[in-house]
Amino acid sequence: MSGAAETMIDVRVWRGAGEGEYQAFTVPRRDSQTVLDVVTWIQRHADPTLAYRFACRVGVCGSCAMTVNGRPRWTCRTHVSKVIEDGRLEIGPLANLPVIRDLAADMAPFFDKWQKAEGTFVPSRTRHEPLERISPESAERQAADAAIECINCGVCYAACDTVRWSPDYFGPAALNRSWSLVNDVRDAGNLERLAAAASNGGCHNCHSHQSCEQLCPKGLNPTASIAGLKRRTMQAYIRGEIT
Amino acid sequence: MSARPHTTGYRGDRLWLAAMVHRVSGVLLAAFLPLHFLVLGLALEGEAQLDGFLHWTKSPLVKFAETGLVLLLAIHLLGGIRLLVIENMPWREGQKRMATLAAAAAVGIAGIFLIALL
Fold first, then answer.
1. Chain B nearest CA to A191, separation (Å)
2. In what order do the strands lie in the sheet with A65-68?
3. Share of chain A above pLDDT 90, in %
């Protein structure tokens, strides 16, 4: 920006943990600037004590999600031009998770629930047996795509009022993962997984707000996966496979 | 000092509103039901009691309130059918459109009821 006065952004950044306040910064506006660029500028030029988390900067690792103007976003791929309102940005930590400090949320409950939802692959063959051949065109293989692109960023979890209202609820990401495994013909853990999906923290909590789908940066639809789990758990219950 | 970060900007999206309308209409209908039973219970106290009340319900204000009741019933029914379809049948895209259609149809039903009253 040679000569001309720089355009500035009014940025308010959350400081503190559970209790805290927004701190105001003025950050120079740049072309193609992302929200993560803004946070990084503040840490490098205004306040080096600002705590936040990022790694890849290209939308792969899922570690940089924050709340931007009230909505959870992956900040490395969120352009300022898309979310700025009246020249202002308000940046906070992800919701529905404990705050470690400033913009860094504690992701431990998110991943604990992933385990509670039986979101881990249970192999049906040993390494000594041949690999199972699965047609990419098969309906099961295509259904298993539901969560394959999930980067565990926690945006859906932070956008879910059901998580907010029911602290035991596993949340969209864990149940989306569960649905992928339910459709994985190689997996041998479905009865335990469906029992978990039908438990108190499971799929039947979902109110189908679809905030998870609307805000998922990867364009996934956890609500559809959870609806699939509702159907499948009902069928398993009627057959007497789960109680 | 703010107590907590602001994190609920997603509220007010169309499907979030659909869930709220469904919940609030359900609560209001549940609140109405005991009143309905109370009125029916008047019949046990005699014909005159019930007829007296039913005469009062013919006033324009009560008729207008009945339109609201029809709106609540229709919107809760149609919203409930949308949810039953989501939860028991293969996923369909376009849920925002379905929720809007349910709301429009409910308003239409209530409107027809109101016109029939006039």
1. 20
2. A20-28, A8-16, A88-92, A65-68, A71-74
3. 92
pTM reported for the whole predicted model: 0.91
A2-47: per-residue pLDDT in tens?
456 789 999 999 999 878 999 999 999 999 999 999 999 999 999 9
Q: Give me the amino acid identity at A156.
A: C
Q: Which residues contact A64 (CB under 8 A, 6 or more apart)?
A: A36, A52, A53, A54, A55, A57, A74, A75, A76, A153
Is the domain spanning B14-117 CATH 1.20.1300.10? The answer is yes
Q: What is the pLDDT of residues A42-93, one digit of tens each?
A: 999 999 999 999 999 999 999 999 999 999 999 999 999 999 999 999 999 9
A72 near A94, Cβ under 8 Å? Answer: yes
The two beta strands, A71-74 and A88-92, are: unpaired
Q: Do A208 and B10 touch (CB under 8 A)?
A: no
B84 chain-A contacts, CB cut-off 8 A: none
Whether A33 contacts A11, CB under 8 Å: no
Under CATH, which architecture does the A8-105 domain have? Answer: Roll (3.10)
- B14 → chain A, closest CA residue: A209
Q: Taking the domains of chain A in order of start, what are their residue ranges?
A: 8-105, 108-238
Residue of B nearest to A231 (CA): B88
Contacts of B83 in chain A (CB under 8 A): 208
In this complex, which of A70, A161, A231 lies closest to B87 when CB atoms are compared?
Answer: A231
Is B7–A158 a contact, with Cβ atoms under 8 angstroms apart? Answer: yes
